Every structure is written in C-alpha cells, then in structure tokens.
UniProtKB/TrEMBL annotation:
Signal peptide residues on this chain, from the entry's feature table: none
Taxonomy of the source species: Bacteria, Pseudomonadati, Pseudomonadota, Alphaproteobacteria, Rhodobacterales
Entries under SUPFAM superfamilies matching the protein: Clavaminate synthase-like
Protein name, as recorded: Alpha-ketoglutarate-dependent dioxygenase AlkB
Pfam families, per the entry: 2OG-FeII_Oxy_2
Organism from which the protein derives: Rhodovulum sulfidophilum
GO molecular function: dioxygenase activity
Domain Fe2OG dioxygenase: 109-210
Entry keywords, A to Z: Dioxygenase, Iron, Metal-binding, Oxidoreductase
Cofactor: Fe(2+)
Length: 210
C-alpha cells in the first residue's frame, strides 16, 4: 500500500479502541454539498432494505456508488457491479473522493461508497467489515444527519466495547490494527438534525474492494 504523506492531512481529534475520529471535519456547507450528491446517487440507485442470508430484513436501507456496491440477500453478503434492479452503480461523487484522498493520504481511489440510510428506529448490529480482498487498505466513514451511538468492540468477538455519539459532519477511519474491530450502530437520535430530507441519518463508508 503506497501511502503518501500529504500536507494538510487531518489529525484525529479522538482515538477509541484504535478507531480514529475526526469530529466536525465537515462544516455545514461541506455536508450540504455531499448530501446533494448523495441524494442524486439515491435517485439513480434507490436504497433497498437488504435481507440477510437467513432471510431477515435489515432495518437499514442501502445503496452504493462506485465500481462495486455491497449487497446482501439469501445468497449471502458480497460486492456486485450492479444495483439489484440491474442498473450500474452511479460514480462516487467528487467531493467524497476528495475527502478520501485528504484523510487517508492515499493516491488510490476507493472502489465502493456504501450508503447506509437510517430512518425511524433503524440500527446496525455489531459486525466486522471483511468482504474486501485486502485489509491493509483503510475504511473511511462519514456521518450525515441525525446523531447515532456508534459501538466499538475488539477484533475478536465478545469482550468489552465502548460507544460514542457520531454527529453530522464527523468522519472516522478504521485502519491498521483497528481495521477489523467489531462495530455497530446502537441507535439513532431521531429529529436531531434537519440535514436529510425525510429525516434520519446517512452513513457513507468508502472502501477499496479488490
Ligand atoms: C454506520 N458504519 O456508521 C455504520 N464500517 O452507520 C460502519 O459499519 C462502518 O463506520 C466500517 C468502517 C467504518 C464504519
Ligand atoms: Fe461496518
């Protein structure tokens, strides 16, 4: 992995169990700019409520931008080059790519921007992100809209966890020894933001897939 030190690369304001958090990295203009682009992504590739391999519907709605999108259905979890409807995923919006390069310092672009939409009561159980080919690449995550309690555990299952509230404009990086920690969203504080039309929270995760 070629990591170039770039001038102006932000320093994490907080590190929790190895996860780097950049509170308020995006000001409200930057958030609104990204949100407008993500709204266009969601009209081209509407978020769907995926099913797990076991036939349970997830409460989060998902879509993606980029070369690959992450999907889940009865056949399992995987990356696909098309939305379940058959349309190609829209390209990753330019301001999102700029943020990736600025925070990671990497020359390589991500292959996938997974868009997680949390409406009324949606949450996400503790999981690891391990459907990518090479865990030496980081994952970058952007929070928009309502505040959410993010829980962070360990690389191994079980054991102690810590949680923190993520607000709109917060950015987070999972890399190095923290790349494979368990994490999830306990709950979203409904109505805590007006950033998203129709309410709720959006989380973007940027990944190198192959
Ligand atoms: C969320 N985030 O914030 C869920 N995964 O809604 C994730 O699952 C996540 O924030 C990998 C890396 C960073 C993340
Ligand atoms: Fe994740």
């Amino acid at each position: 992995m070629s990591e170039t030190e770039r001038p102006g690369r932000p320093v994490p304001g907080l590190v929790v169990r190895g996860v780097e958090i950049f509170p308020g990295l995006l000001d409200s203009a930057a958030q609104a700019g990204i949100m407008a682009e993500i709204a266009a992504v969601m009209s081209a590739a509407p978020p769907v409520q995926p099913e797990t391999r076991f036939g349970r519907k997830m409460s989060v709605r998902m879509t993606s931008a980029g070369k690959y999108g992450w999907v889940s259905d009865r056949r399992g979890y995987r990356y696909e080059t098309r939305h379940p409807s058959g349309v190609a995923w829209p390209p990753i919006p330019a301001p999102v790519l700029t943020l990736w390069h600025r925070v990671t310092g990497l020359a390589r672009a991500p292959d996938c921007c997974l868009v997680n939409l949390y409406r009324d009561g949606a949450k996400m159980g503790l999981h690891q992100d391990r459907d990518e080919a090479d865990f030496s690449w980081p994952i970058l995550s952007v929070s928009l809209g309502d505040e959410a309690r993010f829980r962070i555990g360990d690389v191994t299952r079980g054991g102690p966890t810590e949680s923190l509230w993520l607000k709109s404009g917060d950015v987070l990086a999972m890399r190095g020894p923290a790349r494979l920690v368990h994490h999830g969203i306990d709950r979203v504080r409904g109505g805590s933001s007006t950033m998203i039309e129709g309410g709720g929270r959006i989380n973007l995760t940027l990944r190198v897939v192959d």
